Amino acid sequence: MASTFFGLTIAYTGLQAAQTSINVTSHNLANINNQSYTKETASIKAGEALRSYAKYGTLGAGVIVDAINQTRDSYYDEKYRNNYTNYGQYNVKDTYMSQIQNYLNEFTLKGYSTEYENFFAALNQLDLTPADTSAKNQLINNAKSMTDYFNTLATNLRNVQIDANNEIKDTVNQINSLAQSISSLNKQINQIQANYGNANDLKDQRNALIDDLSKLVNISVSETDIGNNLTDLQITINGNSLVNGYNYHTLQTVSRDEPRNISDAAGLYDIQWETGQPFNIYSTSLGGELKGLIDIRDGCNGEIEKYATTTDDDGNETYKTDAEGNILTDTVSKVDSNTNYKGVPYYQAQLNQFIQTFVSSINEILTKGVTSDGSASGIPLFVMSDGSKALTASSVTVNQDLIDNADLLATKYKESDGEANTSLIVDLINSKDAKIYDGGTGTYFLESIVSDMSIDASKAINFTKNYNNLKTTIQNQRLSVMGVDTDEEAMDLVKFQQAYNLSSKMMTVMNQLYDRLINNTGV
Q1: What residues does the Flagellar hook-associated protein FlgK helical domain cover (predicted)?
Q2: Which candidate, 223, 225, 241, places its Cα nearest to that of 233?
Q3: What pLDDT digit, counting tens, does each position of 376-416 carry?
Q4: What 3-state class would DSSP assign to 222?
Q5: 424: Cβ contacts below 8 Å, ≥ 6 apart
Q6: Spatial CA neighbour of 377 closest among 399, 410, 420
Q7: Beta bridge partners of 332
Q8: What is the pLDDT of residues 199-239, one digit of tens each?
Q9: What does the DSSP 8-state code read for residue 328?
Q10: What is the pLDDT of residues 352-381, one digit of tens each?
Q11: Of 76, 62, 187, 58, which Cα lies nearest the Cα of 476?
Q12: Rg of the chain's alpha carbons, rounded to an integer?
C-alpha cells in the first residue's frame, strides 16, 4: 500500500527525470562542434505501480530514467567507412602521381622528349659536316645530356618509391596503434557496461578510431551482444583478425632480401602478421592508404621486371645481352601476385625498355663503321656505368673514350669511303623513324609513357574529388542522425524546463497538503 507521502515521491521522480534530461541536453550542446560525438537522449519509462488495496487496484509510481541512449545508425557508419577507405586510397595516389607527373611533365619541362630530339638534331648537323670535330663533340655532349636526364629521372622515380615505402611502414605502425587503442577501449567499455553504467563517450572515442582505421585499410567491423550488457567487437582485414574483443594482432614490416623488380630500391618492405603468417599486400580487397601506397611502390601493370634470359643449345639458361654484352631486362606476367596499377616500377620498366632499344639501335650502327679518317673501327656511343649489372635508365651513360676523343666516333662504313660519305649518319638519323619500340617509333613510345601517366594522374585526381564529395554527403547523412541540432536541442530544453517546473509545482502543492495534514489537523 502506498504511503501517505507517496505523492511527493512521484513528484520527486518527475523532478529527477526532467533534471537528467536537461543535463543530457546540456551535454549534447557542449559537444555540438564535436564531429565524432553521438547525440544522447534520456530514455524514460513509468515506474512500477504499487498495489493500493483499494477498488482502483494499483497506483503509478512516477517515472524513472532507465538509460542514456545514443542516436546512431550503423548503416551510415559502414557506408562512411567504405567510402573513407576509397578516399584514402586515391588521396595517396593523387599525392604520389602528382610527383611522378612533375618528373614526366613533357608539356612544361624540357624533358626526355626534348633530349631525344636534341640528339637527332645534332646528328642532322653532323650529317652536314661529318669530319668536323666540333660537330662530333656536339653530338656526344647531347648524348651525355640525354643519358644524364634519364639517370636523374630514374633516381627521382626511385626516391618516390622510397618515400612510399617509408610511408607504408608508418601506416602499418598507425594500424597497430589504432588496433591497440580500440582493444583497450573494448575492455573499458565492457567494464562500465557490466555495471550497467554509461560508456557512450568511450564508444564515441572507439568509433572515431575505427573511422581513422578505415582510411588506412579496408576493414570489416562486427559487434555481437554476449549478454549482461556486454558486447564483443571484432575487426578483420582480408579475413584475418586485427581486433578480437580485448585482444589485438599486429602487422610487421620485413625488408626484402632481393628487389622484386630490377630497378627497385633496396630493402623495400613486405608485410606479415606478428605470428609470421603472410599478409597479402596485393589483395584486391585491401583498400585504403595502404593499398594506394603499395600500388604506387610495386605497381607494374600486373608484371614484374626481371633480367631477360635465354636458353642455349644445351638447354642452359643464361642472361640475354645486346651486341656489347650488356644484360637486358624483360617483364613477366604476375597477375596472381602483383597489383595491376601502373606505379613507379611500371614507369621504370618503360624507361628501361626505351633505353635498351635506343642504345642497341644506335650502337649497332656505330660499331659497324669506322672513324672519319678511317684509322679505327667504330666503338659504342652508349655503355653501362661502372658497377652496373644491367643496361637501364639509371645505368646508361656515354662511352668515356668518346668524351675524351670525339674523333673516335664512327661516321662512315668503309675505310675507302670519303669523309663526305654520310650513309652511316643517315642510318642513325633514320633510326628515329624505325618502328622498333613495341611496333612504334621512339617518339611515339615516349609520348605513350606520358599518356599513361596523365591518364592515371587525372584518374587519381577525379576519384579523390568524387570520394571526398561522397564523404561530405555521407557524413551529413550520418550527422542528420547522430549529430546535435541546435534547434532541436533548444526545443528539448524548453520542454524539459517546463516538465521540471511542473514537477516543482507538484511538490509545492503536495507540500501544502502535508503541511495542512501535519500542522493544522487535530487539536
Answers
A1: 97-382
A2: 223
A3: 999 999 999 988 889 999 999 999 999 999 999 999 998 88
A4: strand
A5: 365, 366, 368, 369, 410, 411, 412, 413
A6: 410
A7: 304
A8: 899 999 999 999 999 999 999 999 999 888 889 999 999 88
A9: P
A10: 999 999 999 999 999 999 998 888 999 999
A11: 76
A12: 38
3-class DSSP assignment, residue 404: helix
- DSSP class of residue 389? S
Q: How far apart are CA 325 and CA 249, in angstroms?
A: 50
270-284: buried (b, 16+ CB within 10 Å) or exposed (e) per residue? bbebeeeeebebbee
Max CA pair span of the chain: 151
The b/e string for 180-189 (b: 16+ C-beta within 10 A; e otherwise) is ebbbebbeeb
Spatial separation of the C-alpha atoms in residues 274 and 276, rounded to whole Å: 5
Q: Can you read off the three cell numbers belonging to residue 274?
A: 606478428
Q: Strands 230-237, 220-227: parallel, antiparallel or unpaired by DSSP? A: antiparallel
Query: Which residue stretches of 69-132 are H helix?
Result: 74-103, 112-128
Cα-Cα-Cα-Cα dihedral sign, residues 17, 19, 21, 23: negative
Quote the DSSP letter at residue 436.
-
pLDDT at residue 290 in the model: 97
**What number of CA atoms fall less than 13 Å from residue 272's CA on the CB side?**
9
Residue 265: all three cell numbers together: 630500391
The answer to whether the CB of 406 falls within 8 A of the CB of 137 is yes
Residues lower than pLDDT 50 in the chain: 1, 108-109
Identify the burial level of 223 via C-beta atoms within 10 angstroms of its C-beta, where 0-12 means exposed, 13-18 middle and 19 or more buried: middle
By C-alpha distance, which of 297, 303, 262, 305 is closest to 281?
297
Residue that is written with C-alpha cell 645530356 in the block: 145
Which neighbouring-strand residues pair with 251?
273
Find residue 236's DSSP bridge partners. Answer: 220, 241
Task: Answer for the pair 97, 460: CB distance below 8 angstroms, yes or no.
Answer: yes
Are 72 and 481 within 8 A, CB to CB?
yes
Enter the pTM of the model: 0.88
Instruction: Specify whether the CB–CB gap between 409 and 365 falls below 8 A.
Output: no
How many other C-beta atoms lie within 10 A of the C-beta of residue 419? Answer: 15
Query: Amino acid letter at 351?
Result: L
Q: Which residues contact 486 (CB under 8 A, 6 or more apart)?
A: 29, 32
Distances (CA, A) of 2 to 14, 72, 109, 393, 518: 17, 40, 91, 94, 18
The gap from C-alpha 261 to its chain's centroid, in whole angstroms, comes to 21
Q: Are 220 and 235 in contact (CB under 8 A)?
A: yes
Cβ count near 202 (within 10 Å): 18
Distance (Å) of CA 391 to CA 32, 220, 305, 361: 62, 46, 13, 14
